[in-house]
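Supplementary Methods. Inverse-folding protocol.

Structures were first reduced to a C-alpha cell string of length 138. This string, shown here, constituted the complete conditioning input.
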C-alpha cells in the first residue's frame, strides 16, 4: 500500500473551506489526477460515481461519504486503484488545517507500479491543496 499524507493551513474558517471542497463535482478543477466525473447515485451524504483518472485514462468507481465541515472519505470500489483518500478539516484559531491522506494500491498486475505512482500522487496532492488554498484566500 502507498500511504501519503499532505496538509496545508488555509487562512479561512472551516465553513468557507468546506463550501469549496464539498463541491465534489468540481474536483477536476483542483485535482489534476481526476480528469472526469460522472455521478451514478446519491443517497443522503453518500455519492457513488465513476471517475476517469489521468493514469492511463483509467475508469474507477468511487463511493464518496461527506461528513459536513469535517471530512470527505473517498473509497475506490472498482478499477485500477484500491483504497481510500480522506480529506479532513480541522479548525485552528481563525484558520483551517486541511489534510489529505491516501492509503491505496494499484490492483492486479499493476500492483507492482504502486511505489512508482506514489510520488506522482503525492505531488498532485500537494498541488491540489495549494490550488484550493489559493482559491479560498483570494
Amino acid at each position: 500500500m502507498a500511504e501519503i499524507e499532505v496538509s496545508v493551513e488555509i487562512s479561512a474558517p472551516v465553513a468557507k473551506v468546506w463550501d469549496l471542497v464539498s463541491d465534489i463535482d468540481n474536483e477536476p478543477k483542483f485535482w489534476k489526477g481526476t480528469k472526469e466525473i460522472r455521478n451514478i447515485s446519491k443517497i443522503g451524504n453518500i455519492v457513488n460515481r465513476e471517475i476517469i483518472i489521468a493514469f492511463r485514462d483509467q475508469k474507477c468507481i468511487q463511493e464518496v461519504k461527506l461528513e459536513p465541515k469535517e471530512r470527505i472519505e473517498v473509497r475506490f470500489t472498482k478499477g485500477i486503484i484500491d483504497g481510500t483518500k480522506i480529506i479532513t478539516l480541522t479548525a485552528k484559531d481563525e484558520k483551517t488545517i486541511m489534510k489529505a491522506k491516501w492509503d491505496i494500491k494499484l490492483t492486479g498486475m499493476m500492483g507492482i507500479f504502486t511505489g512508482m505512482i506514489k510520488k506522482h500522487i503525492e505531488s498532485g496532492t500537494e498541488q491540489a491543496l495549494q490550488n484550493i488554498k489559493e482559491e479560498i484566500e483570494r
